[in-house]
Write a structure and sequence with these properties.
Four copies of one chain form a homotetramer.
Chain A lengths: L7 E4 L21 H11 L2 E8 L7 H11 L2 E7 L16 H21 L3 E4 L5 E2 L7 H18 L5 E4 L8 E2 L4 H11 L4 E6 H6 L4 H10 L3 E6 L17 H13 L6 E3 L8 H21 L2 H9 L3 H12 L8
Parallel strand pairs in A: 1-2, 1-10, 2-3, 3-4, 4-6, 6-8, 8-9, 9-10
Antiparallel strand pairs in A: 5-7
Helix pairs in contact in A: 1-2, 1-9, 4-5, 7-8, 8-9, 10-11
């Protein structure tokens, strides 16, 4: 079986430079939105980017459009910066109603940007919505604000799609939208059909989920509207290059998408603090193409039979046969 | 504010002896069901026990009833052994339909025992329902079996209550009912009103949940029908004595129950591999009484105000004032 | 470069059946020592086994020797059962001097068995030496007992080699010999040259070490005297089949052994609770042969250059080129 | 037993503002070194600070001295910024010799600052010395650079003390100086008597150590030359206020210091991203004073007896009696 190569995408922040609490002077010179777009175009295999908004260095929407066109890229989504200083105690759940209103204003504005760019969705990543200390929040109240806030936003824009990217923690010690199951629950509470989920492979992994299982659950609820991949050591959101640690589980993740007929963009979410951003994207896509070829090689009938028996030995051998050349000799 | 001391309970297995994969000769001589009941009675502060079924050493239902009466105990629930050898690849989700049927048979039988004992619920702890290896199961199929199985069971006994005790893992590398949110989702899929959740404090803790937050979510969905407490190092279900590691988070858990007016039995779920079972239960209840007194001391108005501001500093000071005598001098 | 296939070994317990605190009736019928040897022989690629002592079901040393010969196996080591009921509060560090003496007696006896079997070492796995609760032990005293105990033992048998298999935890909540660095420290305190380390890949992994780095540290101290491999999800000692989760890190581990010229037996330490023990061993060896072939394919010069630059991108591409057939098309 | 209140200290960065990879505009306006000193003075109970070097905003050594005097503070140590952009791939272990030389130059300069300020030590926190990817480094070479670099530095300044603050990870996915045992090993390899360790309670905790045990090990090797405290959820270096999560283990840590007669400064290492820095310091010191009073209340004879028996029940009751007022009624 040979299937067409998937379309690849990346968060535009893959091409930024970074800062953290230690290297406060930044791991590199700041990179503007327009320059990030140019770098994304250099990768060569990218079709889509997800853009942070507001754009940096005063870039206008027109400049961004032109830069995307020049780079041969389309916008898949727009991610509003609802986790900067102003929102340090939360966007949707900030204890100060004025800050919540400011977040809402930025979010409404982002809807316009999505429409202008012809992107598919507003991506909500409420990184500061959560808590740090036991006893810091009333859990009922804060979750209600989290759900009601997105409900209010999405209700105001019924023609626009919104995806929530859940994550267990960071920058808050605990984030509210922390898992696939909780995200589904919250979306069901809203009772809207224009809110879905973007699954980040690494978030699922270090949150103790099986990314494949989380994807299946979301698909079964009709809510897997986007995804991105990367890797980590299962203890933190390291945002490493794809496949550098968890080859088998990345393979299972894409296997799950394939058997469900999920056909979306394979996006990257990496933070190459110390590496070249274009080269890390290329290396990951090189690996993802290998995964794609391995998916074409896999014996699906035998795999379905093994899984029907819960036969981990047979399933793993099939995986290794598809994935490893070194298996050639004695298989 | 002084409130009546809560009623205490314990899983009867708190008074068993244990075996693991290393000490295969067991940490102590086996303890029969009847002897476990006698030991539970010795604790002095226990009102309720949750009993494993089938009873060990051939004890009859009449003998168990008599033993409970003699010990001054009532049954709060009954936990069928759907995790023994026969069910090693799962009970509700076993790949073999005959094994699933055997599990169902035992579960139906357990309903009768619950009724005979006047207990409140059948407790479902599907410890072997899950997987060990990536690719071992089809995630859609296995979750469907998990939900449908409990639905079938609970539908057959509409007058009986069933509680699911979720847990992230062990004995399977990954368990299906692994979190509060996922449990709620599964129960909603069933569409029944006689299935709820028993929250184990330690399971929430090492699964990356805040136990207080998980309790609140369950309460908000009307599904917190039981709970038990213990402690661990956040990496495994150590089932240590309550309060030996996480004083503050246990306090937050009971605080959350109180402000919601949750009035149920405070149960223990401990595995004292190397300690005296009666003494560990007594030590934990001693600590829980302290927690209860601290709840009476807490300044609820100030706490609500602090939480409305998400003020972790003020909230923690209130906690310490209520919890620590050593604070007396300078508070 | 083609190198001879390594010799494979396995802990004999790979072929036992298991029990845990839930499936108290055991995951299968008990398997005797002699039967375990027969099963190990069936694998077909095993040259060595590590035997628990005392042997089960009353097998004599002569019977064991005969069974090994019949199965075409040699003993690489003997592991005394210093973690059964009697030693539940520790062997070397038990608070009761009589229990410590009993452990020492069993250990002396094991030296004789090692000599009789022509094995290479006594393997010390002090699984019950540690603690469960904060404040339970005096950390100075308990570590001193741990070091002094092994020193006393090894001093009494200067011609015999002893290897310590460190592990972070389980069955104790915290074990004393918990890491490569701590093991080296303790051995240095002994000042003996007949005590070394057996590195378990999975123990290193879930203890937060890089197994490759731990191996290098031990090699640099001349103390890597044995090793075994398996896999897990980095949170517990799952003892899964090799390569089912961490292909790349297993590869790095064996790469590190090769560039150091380490030539020992590639041993397995798996607990196939629910799988066929012979088949899991075969599946793992099948994968290890693939790793061995990938080691032959790897570009060592380019890897050394990449590592000299700390170039993670180049290093990972070299790894993937050696490991993945699916890379063939575009590499 | 009543003992004098300990002297308190804090890293000066406790009074800075912070940035991370999300809130790239910083959690607050930048705070200069001189302003940080003023804020530290406001706490009221601090005697010592540990200062980052170079000082920010162009402050001179004379200005810093004056500010310290005005605030009633002394310098306990100086921490050179060997983790900024230039050192993003490591200071002592950077693959580029020119960068290693630049780090060494800054370190030599820091020795002068320590002397000028009359501080006790140069604190080495080699946060960028490590790796991110499997296969990225040669583990032998990189550890050798790590040890040799500090050896070269400390050899050049035999009258100056250096302390290494170990940490498992962050900002690197894996750091080289990652545990107490490994730090001791590395220092022994140096063979110098002017290199010791500063133990950070939180680093030990989330690295899987028992902080009390790590402290004891360092004391037994004569290497516990400094310490600081904070708290976290055992999965990351959250740098929360002391005692907000792990009351019992903080208490065990200070108990261990006391029974060893360790008399140093009780330092704080907190990152109050979203809280007032002076108030978080005050709240932590308030708790630490409670710990100190609890240490005075503790029954040391009974504790020693309990620990001699490895009696976790008795030990925990003694802890709770000393720590909890709520225990008063029934103890």
């Amino acid at each position: 079986m040979t299937t067409p190569t998937p379309l690849f995408g990346a968060g535009l922040w893959n091409f930024a430079s970074y800062v953290d609490r230690y290297a406060t002077d930044g791991y590199d010179e700041p990179v503007s939105t327009l320059e990030q777009i140019r770098l994304a175009g250099e990768v060569g295999d990218l079709s889509y980017v997800d853009l942070n908004y507001p754009f940096s260095h005063g870039a206008t929407l027109e400049e961004v459009k032109a830069a995307l066109a020049a780079a041969g890229l389309k916008a898949i989504g727009v991610t509003p910066d609802i986790y900067l200083r102003r929102f340090k105690k939360g966007a949707f759940t900030n204890p100060d109603p004025a800050v919540r209103a400011a977040a809402m204003e930025l979010l409404h504005e982002t809807v316009g940007v999505v429409n202008e760019l012809g992107a598919r969705y507003v991506k909500l990543w409420p990184g500061q919505d959560g808590w740090d200390y036991p006893f810091q929040v009333n859990h009922h109240d804060v979750w209600k604000l989290a759900v009601d806030g997105i409900k209010e936003l999405a209700s105001a824009h019924p023609e626009t799609k919104f995806v929530i990217e859940y994550k267990p923690r960071e920058p808050r010690v605990k984030m509210l939208w922390d898992s696939a199951a909780r995200s589904i629950l919250g979306i069901k509470e809203m009772g809207l059909d224009n809110v879905g989920v973007l699954l980040d492979f690494g978030h699922a992994l270090y949150g103790g989920e099986s990314p494949a299982d989380a994807a299946q659950l979301l698909i079964d609820h009709g809510l897997l509207w986007g995804m991105d991949v990367n890797d980590n050591l299962r203890g933190w959101d390291d945002d490493l290059m794809v496949g550098t640690v968890h080859m088998t589980e990345v393979f299972e993740f894409f296997y799950t998408l394939r058997i469900n007929g999920w056909e979306g963009v394979w996006q990257l979410d990496q933070f190459p603090f110390r590496e070249d951003s274009v080269e890390t994207a290329r290396a990951s896509i090189r690996f993802l193409k290998a995964i794609h070829r391995a998916l074409d090689k896999l014996d699906y009938v035998a795999m379905a039979e093994a899984q029907a028996r819960h036969d981990g030995i047979a399933a793993q051998k099939l995986v290794q046969d598809a994935l490893l050349s070194s298996m050639g000799g004695d298989a």
